[in-house]
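User: Just a sanity check before I run the rest of the batch. Below are the structure tokens for the first item. I only need the designed sequence back.
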């Protein structure tokens, strides 16, 4: 069987589009050009995908995704099995491995030429080999083929990492989920952990139909989608039905975070920092905008109809304080209103729509004259010398082709426009369809304080155009500059930005020379963000904070976030650099890519399978590393995956055979429509449980203690001390010991009738004299999973002797929110008596403020229970002994 296995050459085609200011160029709401669905089945000897899983861990907006496909050869002879996987364009592949009949082969990232040489040398020696490369000219699609023995299995595992970008006030985490055939074991999981808090979580699925598929994808009725969350974590799972898999192309998770500081979140860990700047509630700067629209002959038909539709919608969205004009161009240039920008009112908007309706496509493309006339219109507006809000003046250019009349040299157009704009305005470029010179538009926009976007000529093109406009429609700050004070920092990414738009985000990363520790205030890392607002110059300040240990798993690395964004910005800078600077950039990108195992346009990942089961690295050999066994969650490995699989005998049509492998290129295009549904989550519940209320509605499904949490290092329960503070009349701050030293397996049970009779791994038996504060384990960090705590609080003197009572309140409360509080919860038993068969029980969960006050005459029993997935910051309980209220 070993002799029948041969790994043929495989490639990743990657579109590496790098951030410009707070944006990444790419398809609106879809960062990969879509593919025509190419479904195959296991009939007639084709391979069968037996497992198709995706698991993503998102921590502080950084997504780590593992993609795995398990494929079985159902044929009676050995044959080639292939898998196709799709990735977001902004992602970096960080690992690839194959498990063939128990033998694991792991990829190594090397400089591209060295990796290619190793690959060729392995093939020349008759060894099986694979090469993973990035090609910026193609969509990011991963293909791999391998010969598998009859009845054999192969597991493909692909890891990639991506820093999520904020657009239109949400982070959109896209997971491409089309295995190419119906898979019985198909599952997607996304874990999100955000220390600053989560304000919104939504999930939807997208379908891309072909003409042969007549039934639409009714996403309003998608099955088995689960969203669980606390204020700081969310867990989303989706197990698509067989019917849904026929049309499913991608699964989207959208979320946003809490922003309490106008200066943004400045997070620090292990000597690195990441600064997320996205202030809310700043006033919007009035904008002066000129729309420059291509009406050449190639825009005829659907393109022009969609452009007109988008323009009419955009005109309705202009604000009363804005000014605008419209220019159209083919061989000649035509302005709606000559020589001035118009104010926004009903009369002018109506006239502008009439002008839009009369646009007809014909002639060539005089791009340069139209752009120059647009700048001339902006020059007619006197700028405010006090605020210097030039950044609120913008040119939005849309074209579907290359210049064909007037000045046709793209380098000359760039040079003349750069001189004319002179840093005063922002130029945004939209490339419509496949024939546009997007590289030219990208450079033109970047050189003039803007960004470019590719618009795909699909049925939703008008929505893409409108979506792009929405991103830049509300400027809040211009000329943004960020400085860091206190602890010295180095290797800081870009810190000056032309504009900040509502709903976007500015991101800065850097390295701290000495990790901050408890030192004088002057040495704490602070960020000072300055910019021009509608009210004048402003400075926003924020202080750095260490990420709590409980919010990260053992594989999370702030250094990787720093390396990711640094590489992206260096590759972006390389586009405009001279030869000497390009060489410097190449050297640094290569060093960072190989250190952090990123496949970029300067590196490749090579996998070889020698006969002695070693991986060849240049002229040396090392044993093939066996991946560490991943802890399991609910019967699933920590990371899982997706892929499209098919099989066949011998070589496939259209492939070019080479010694020891093959190269395959397939053209893909998109067809059909997309459909979307949405799920919303509400939060916060307090459920009183009296004697007459059934307690069967409160199951607590809990696997055994010690189940791995994807957001925590391995936890050895019950090593979670309970932090307790008291008033000055009692002992100073102490640590209450747990009532038991053994981890407890919590079975699915209703609230216990006798809480003092259950096993626990934390809690206490405590007398209250005046006041006491009690917290959940690890508060204000995340509480541990699979935990059960029991506290009994009592007074020294009964109420019958001394007319006082115990009052319990929750100054802070953050648990997982679930209907009927069926998962993480706090149970309170006022004046519990073990002799009672049906005691009074109050149940609390969720993460909204809890105004409830619980009173007890002599004692209170409090039980805290958590399960195995979502965690929160827990709670602070305040207990007071006070006189009876009269």
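Assistant: Here's the designed sequence for the first item:
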């Amino acid at each position: 069987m070993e002799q029948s296995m041969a790994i043929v050459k495989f490639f990743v085609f990657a579109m590496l589009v790098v951030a410009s200011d707070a944006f990444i160029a790419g398809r609106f709401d879809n960062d990969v050009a879509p593919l025509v669905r190419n479904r195959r089945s296991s009939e007639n000897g084709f391979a069968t995908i037996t497992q198709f899983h995706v698991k993503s861990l998102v921590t502080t907006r950084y997504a780590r995704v593992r993609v795995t496909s398990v494929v079985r050869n159902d044929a009676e002879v050995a044959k080639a099995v292939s898998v196709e996987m799709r990735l977001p364009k902004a992602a970096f592949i960080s690992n690839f491995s194959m498990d063939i009949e128990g033998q694991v082969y792991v990829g190594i990232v090397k400089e591209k030429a060295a990796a290619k040489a190793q690959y060729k040398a392995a093939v020349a020696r008759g060894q099986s080999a694979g090469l993973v490369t990035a090609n910026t000219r193609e969509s990011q699609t991963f293909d791999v083929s391998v010969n598998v023995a009859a009845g054999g299995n192969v597991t493909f595992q692909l890891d990639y990492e991506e820093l999520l970008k904020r657009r239109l006030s949400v982070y959109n985490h896209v997971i491409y989920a089309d295995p190419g055939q119906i898979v019985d074991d198909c599952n997607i999981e996304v874990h999100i952990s955000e220390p600053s808090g989560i304000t919104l979580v939504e999930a939807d699925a997208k379908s891309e139909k072909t003409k042969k598929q007549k039934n639409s994808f009714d996403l309003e009725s998608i099955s088995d989608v689960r969203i669980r969350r606390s204020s700081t974590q969310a867990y989303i799972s989706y197990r698509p039905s067989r019917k849904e898999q026929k049309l499913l192309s991608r699964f989207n998770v959208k979320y946003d975070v809490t922003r309490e500081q106008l200066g943004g979140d400045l997070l620090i860990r292990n000597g690195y920092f990441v600064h997320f700047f996205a202030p809310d509630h700043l006033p919007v700067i009035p904008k002066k905008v000129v729309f420059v629209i291509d009406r050449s002959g190639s825009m005829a038909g659907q393109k022009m109809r969609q452009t007109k539709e988008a323009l009419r919608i955009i005109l309705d969205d202009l604000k009363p304080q804005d000014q605008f004009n419209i220019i159209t161009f083919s061989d000649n240039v035509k302005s709606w209103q000559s020589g001035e920008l118009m104010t926004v009112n009903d009369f002018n908007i109506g006239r502008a729509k009439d002008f839009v309706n009369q646009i007809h496509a014909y002639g060539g493309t005089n791009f340069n004259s139209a752009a120059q006339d647009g700048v001339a219109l902006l020059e007619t507006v006197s700028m405010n010398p006090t605020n210097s809000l030039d950044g609120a003046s913008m040119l939005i250019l849309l074209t579907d082709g290359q210049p064909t009349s007037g000045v046709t040299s793209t380098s000359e157009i760039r040079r003349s426009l750069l001189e004319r704009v002179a840093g005063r305005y922002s130029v945004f470029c939209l490339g419509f369809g496949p024939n546009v010179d997007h590289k030219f538009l990208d450079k033109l926009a970047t050189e003039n304080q803007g960004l470019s976007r590719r618009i795909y000529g699909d049925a939703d093109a008008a929505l893409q155009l409108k979506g792009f406009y929405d991103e830049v429609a509300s400027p809040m700050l211009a000329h943004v500059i960020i400085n860091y004070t206190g602890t010295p920092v180095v290797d800081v990414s870009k810190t000056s930005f032309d504009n900040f738009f509502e709903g976007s985000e500015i991101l800065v990363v850097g390295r701290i020379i000495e990790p901050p520790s408890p030192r004088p205030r002057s040495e704490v890392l602070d960020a000072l963000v300055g910019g021009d607002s509608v009210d004048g110059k402003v400075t926003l300040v924020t202080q750095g904070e260490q990420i709590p240990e409980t919010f990260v798993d053992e594989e999370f690395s702030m250094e990787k976030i720093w390396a990711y964004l640094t590489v992206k910005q260096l590759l972006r800078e390389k586009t405009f650099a001279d030869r000497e600077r390009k060489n410097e950039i190449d050297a640094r990108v290569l060093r960072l890519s190989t250190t952090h195992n990123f496949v970029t346009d300067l590196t490749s990942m090579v996998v070889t399978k020698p006969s002695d089961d070693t991986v060849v690295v240049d002229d040396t050999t090392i044993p093939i590393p066996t991946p560490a066994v991943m802890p399991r969650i609910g019967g699933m490995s920590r990371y899982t995956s997706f892929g499209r699989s098919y099989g066949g005998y011998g070589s496939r049509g259209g492939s070019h055979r080479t010694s020891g492998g093959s190269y395959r290129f397939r053209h893909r295009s998109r067809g059909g429509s997309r459909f979307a549904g949405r799920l919303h989550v509400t939060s916060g519940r307090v459920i009183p449980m009296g004697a007459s209320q059934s307690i069967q509605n409160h199951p607590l499904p809990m696997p055994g203690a010690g189940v791995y949490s994807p957001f925590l290092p391995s936890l050895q329960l019950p090593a979670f001390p309970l932090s307790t503070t008291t008033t000055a009349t009692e002992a100073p701050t102490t640590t209450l010991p747990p009532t038991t030293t053994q981890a407890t397996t919590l079975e699915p049970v209703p609230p216990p009738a006798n809480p003092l009779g259950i096993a626990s791994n934390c809690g206490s038996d405590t007398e209250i004299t005046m006041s006491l504060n009690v917290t959940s384990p690890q508060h204000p960090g995340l509480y541990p999973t699979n935990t059960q705590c029991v506290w009994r609080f009592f007074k020294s003197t009964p109420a019958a002797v001394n007319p006082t009572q115990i009052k319990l309140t929750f100054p802070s409360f953050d648990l997982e929110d679930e209907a009927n509080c069926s998962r993480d919860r706090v149970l309170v038993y006022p004046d519990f008596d073990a002799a009672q068969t049906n005691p009074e029980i109050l149940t609390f969960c969720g993460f909204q403020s809890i105004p409830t006050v619980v009173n007890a005459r002599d004692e209170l029993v409090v039980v805290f229970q958590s399960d195995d997935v979502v965690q929160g910051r827990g709670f602070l309980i305040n207990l007071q002994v006070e006189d009876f209220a009269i």
